[in-house]
């Protein structure tokens, strides 16, 4: 219990002190006044929930008026018209408007709205149409190590370390010690309250490993997204789609004869209706179920980030209407309570995804009694 209390106090302190002072720090004018307009805040929030080619913790303006970014670059890996090209993201100098051209291996690249483009042969700068779309550049296959990939790797290694240590403890003792005592009740909860009742006694052991991995992976990444590190891994549609596809592959490959018979040739209904039901059931199994998994997780986590950052931005956007002290106080109170709710949502979304995955798998392996 002490560990949870200390972790919670640290999280609250960081959110209340670090986030308001660094997240919305913008360029300052020569007179020292901030230019934190509503449009700038909106653009920053939308940029924050997107993936990034560099790991930027925060930024500030120094005495010379130059923008300083605190963080580190990440490797950019591109498959272009001439093959594989690699370089570090720092070569774009944090510009995201196509103004910086990077030349590598005889090719030119620009980053526009977090997407990397390859310029056409002979082009020296990016040209845009009326809708600000590049007219002389095209997208490339991007295999870069982005900020979300770093988050996945870090959390994956932490989980491997924690659960490997827990497994080694079980070989020597019946009751784990240290951090293993925190993990054990959660592991038992997923096994006894999610896997066993939804999949059944006969088959639940086959899928408990996957359900544990999904639960802890989503939960820890959700919690990491509430820290000043700025992770928004589970708020990326590509990540939630991959998790949903894993569940789809597992319950599709594990489906028994009864499962497929109920989908393709529903028993107990008129023969003429069975083809129609088969189309509906196939759409539900192959499209609707995984789509509901990926959208629910993506939408809830992204919405949570947007709400928290919008409330923090109140101290800038309403400082004239409420005075700086009033706007800051209102922002701190609202963002604190919403952050508490987001801690609950982080667990809840991991639980819902794992529960639905177990339910779909259980439906696929359930053995029906035919009379």
Automatic annotation (TrEMBL):
Molecular function as annotated in GO: proton-transporting ATP synthase activity, rotational mechanism
Xref: SUPFAM superfamilies: F1F0 ATP synthase subunit A (SSF81336)
Domain of life: Bacteria
Membrane topology value: Multi-pass membrane protein
Family as reported in the entry's similarity comment: Belongs to the ATPase A chain family.
NCBIfam families noted in UniProt: ATP_synt_6_or_A (TIGR01131)
Name of the molecule in the record: ATP synthase subunit a
Source organism of this protein record: Winogradskyella wandonensis
Gene that produces this protein: atpB
């Amino acid at each position: 219990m002490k560990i949870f209390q200390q972790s919670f106090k640290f999280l609250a302190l960081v959110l209340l002190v670090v986030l308001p002072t660094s997240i919305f720090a913008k360029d300052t004018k020569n007179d020292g006044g901030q230019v934190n307009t509503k449009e700038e805040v909106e653009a920053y929030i939308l940029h924050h929930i997107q993936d990034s080619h560099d790991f930027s913790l925060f930024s500030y303006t120094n005495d010379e008026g130059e923008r300083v970014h605190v963080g580190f670059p990440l490797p950019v890996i591109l498959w272009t018209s001439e093959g594989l090209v690699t370089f570090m993201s720092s070569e774009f100098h944090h510009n995201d408007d196509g103004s910086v051209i990077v030349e590598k291996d005889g090719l030119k690249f620009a980053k526009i709205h977090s997407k990397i483009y390859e310029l056409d042969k002979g082009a020296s700068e990016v040209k845009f149409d009326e809708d600000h779309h590049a007219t002389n550049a095209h997208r490339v296959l991007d295999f870069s190590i982005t900020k979300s990939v770093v988050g996945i790797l870090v959390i994956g290694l932490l989980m491997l370390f924690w659960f490997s240590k827990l497994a080694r403890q079980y070989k020597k003792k019946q009751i784990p010690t240290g951090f293993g005592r925190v993990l054990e009740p959660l592991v038992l909860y997923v096994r006894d309250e999610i896997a066993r009742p939804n999949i059944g006694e006969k088959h639940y052991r086959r899928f408990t490993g996957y359900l544990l991995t999904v639960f802890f992976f989503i939960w820890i990444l959700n919690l990491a997204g509430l820290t000043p590190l700025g992770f928004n891994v589970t708020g990326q549609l590509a990540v939630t789609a991959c998790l949903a596809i894993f569940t789809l592959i597992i319950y599709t490959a594990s489906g028994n004869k009864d499962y497929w018979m109920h989908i393709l040739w529903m028993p107990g209904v008129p023969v003429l209706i069975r083809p129609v039901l088969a189309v509906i059931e196939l759409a539900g199994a192959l499209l609707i179920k995984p789509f509901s998994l990926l959208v629910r997780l993506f939408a809830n986590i992204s919405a949570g980030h947007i709400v928290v950052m919008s409330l923090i931005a109140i101290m800038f956007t309403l400082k004239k209407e409420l005075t700086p002290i009033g706007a800051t106080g209102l922002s701190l109170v609202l963002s604190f309570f919403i952050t508490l709710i987001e801690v609950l949502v982080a667990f809840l979304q991991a639980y819902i995804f794992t529960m639905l995955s177990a339910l779909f798998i259980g439906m696929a392996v359930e053995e029906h009694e035919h009379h």
